[in-house]
Amino acid sequence: MTKTRREFTPEFKQEAVALLEGSGRPLMQIATELGISPSMLRNWRAIAHGASPRSWICFA
What we know:
mainly alpha; 3 helices; globular
């Protein structure tokens, strides 16, 4: 049985990041309330602040 991948609108992502930044509550709590994984919310926040999606920092 395959899982279907959920898709979120840009508006939902923006509102989730705004809620995270404006509420003062922990990321884990916000993610749980929204029914998303903490890493997803963390990634959306990074993108909102100009990082490239799922970017990895390499210290070579």
